[in-house]
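Loading example: each entry is read as two labelled lines plus one structure line.
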Amino acid sequence: MARAADGFYLRAAPAERRPPPAARAGAIGWLRANLFSSPGNVALTLVCAIFIAWTAAHVLRFFVLDAVWSGADREACLASPANPEPGACWAFVRVWLSYFVYGFYPIGARWRVDLFFLALAFGIAWLAWLAAPRRDIGAFYFFIVLPILSFFLLSGAPLIGLSAVPTSLWGGILVTIVVATVGIVASLPLGIVLAFGRRSDIAVVKFFSVTFIEFVRGVPMITVLFMASVMLPLFVPERFTPDKLLRALIGVALFASAYMAEVVRGGLAAVPRGQYEAAQALGLPYWRMTALVILPQALRVTLPNIVNTFIGLFKDTTLVFVVGIFDFLRTIEAARVDPHWATPVTSVTGYAFAAVFYFLCCYAMSRYARGVETRLARAHRR
Amino acid sequence: MAETVNNGSRPTSSRPTSSRRARRSRDIALQLALLAVVGGVAYAAIVNAAQNLAHAHIASGFGFWNNTAGFDISQTLIDYSASASTFGRAFWVGLLNTLLIASLGIVLATVLGFVVGLARLSRNWLVAKVACAYVEAIRNVPLLLQLLFWYNAVLKSLPELRASVTLPGGGFLNNRGLFLPRPEFGPGFGYVSIALAIGIAASISLRVWSRRRQERTGAPVRVAWLALGLIAGPPLVVFALAGAPLSFSLPQLGRFNVLGGVEILPEFAALLVALSVYTAAFIAEVVRAGVLAVPHGQTEAAQALGLRPRATLRLVVVPQAMRVIVPPLTSQYLNLIKNSSLAVAIGYPDLFQVFAGSVLNITGQAVEVIAITMAVYLAISLVASLLMNIYGQTVAVVER
């Protein structure tokens, strides 16, 4: 810096650039800003860190380090000199795993269940991958072909050599997946119909739709399941009494479709009025306007909500427990009281296993919903 | 706005009259056909039900309401005995148990949910992550699984009766429940409650007066401590004057059970914990969304006006956030009430377990029993959404 004779300050050369203060940038700066910005925050951080360390240590000890990975019966998971404080009894899960997956499904026919899982995974991947080719065929496959195929595959078709398997033998993850899938496959079309019924100008249609939707949404799911499983047999002639699993499926489908109807209605309301007017200006009749212009946009907008409804439905499948269906949770309940395996840690192990399964499925779905949401947000940004 | 779009969805105005008339008659025909189909199905169902019920020798109608119930209920808030009480009485016992678990669950879930929701917004990275992990873990695991876990894996693995944990103050904890001292109210206790009521009324009127004064003069009046003193002071004074009319009867550990005291069933505790923990995760998300919905400009404007951070929060952020929070919060409350029917899985005697469980098994009158059960839940839902609408109207932004 030079001082000119007339009293002005004049910088002759640019000032030397100095690095930012170490305490404001880099890892230390981040720590200061996010963890140690004030005495209260320091205390909070310490409490949280101790809590996390304590929990992680216990979880690690119980589920991994001290866990029993193999064994023939409960003896392996009881306290012994070698393992004075045994952790999770994974041996129990290993022994019962096939029951958790297939229930009492005949061992010789379990390849049919595996095939069903594969066919389902294929359909889900086709529909969930938004850039997949020919998703219209995918939808046809998922909503028409797959249900028919699965029905014959799982319950059997003696004509083509597949022995009949009564649903009382089904169980475990198979039943959970079947209930969830039927709920999804049935609730989406039914929900769309109900959503249009609710918006209809025709008084009677609107009345029935609103009544159904509000009624089902106002009562707990297990009352709907109870109604389906206890009252339904009364309402049909005795010889047509539906099978126990089918009754639960009807209950689940009715329940899910009422919730789906509200989600679809939200999507329909989000379609701008200009879209209707443009379709009408093109001379499209009502149904073609709906099918070609309105519904695709409405479903796309509300896709994250649809997936969230599926997550709720997937968790709610556990409630079929209450009407005596052997879903995954029920098989855990049945297995954990088995006297050959009853130990202090068996219940916790079983529940942890179930929790991991449900968490993975639901978390994957919610990540997918969030991904679609960001994708949609990107599409709307100009 | 949605409604206007709805009504415009059909091309009505531009059609010539004859076609409109044709459409109207088609609509009427459609409605009649639909009515006929629904009526026919309902008629067939009723005929079938009557036949099936007659075949199984099951009575119909609500006559069973006044019959003797004949089954025990493990938790009763009103007098009830298996031999003397009716099914109607059992209904009220179950309903009260449902309302008890629901109201306590709502309070706990709200407190926990607000704490977690605000923690997720914390500037402390670790706190935010812990809250996030809580929300993700709890929301993605079915409630029934969590309920069974709390009941079978946690509470049922508590020590047995003989090895009960003795709590400070004379309580016991074992796998049959939590046993606490029972408060016994002496003769003068009524005056204490009256004093409490007067104190609450006085502090409310103080608040009203201070608000009016502030609106008139602009000067804030600090009444919080005075109001607290008004609520706590008079009852304490009356309590001391009346000679402390309150004693506790301690539970006694017997050989086969615990005598005296207040018993908190493990079923009750498990259901309460599971419902609160589960619903709190959803409430946390509602709270977070509500706070994030208040534009940052509002906080900045409040700061520019010179409001302190606390006043900014109380007068600017919270009122606007509540407008967004309350509607989804109500639906979470409704979910909690409906989910309390999962009590049936562990045997807590709520409305569903007592009525759709025990009463249905004894009477076999599925239609009536399930209709009554559903009607109660439906009534609760309708009342709640009615209150919600009234609230929505009172907080709606009045625009020019």
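DSSP finds 14 helices and two strands in chain A.
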